Amino acid sequence: MRSFTLLALAAPLAVHAASGNGHSTRYWDCCKPSCSWGGKASVSAPVLTCDKNDNPLTDANAPSGCNGGSAFTCSNNSPWAVNDKLAYGFAATKLAGGSEGSWCCACYALTFTDGPVKGKTMVVQSTNTGGDLGENHFDIQMPGGGVGIFDGCSPQWGRLAGAQYGGISSRSECDKYPELLKDGCHWRFDWFANADNPNFTFEQVQCPKALTDISGCKRSDDSSFPAFKGDASSSGSGTGSSKPAVSKAAVPKPVAPK
Question: What residues form the catalytic site here (predicted)?
Answer without folding.
Answer: 29
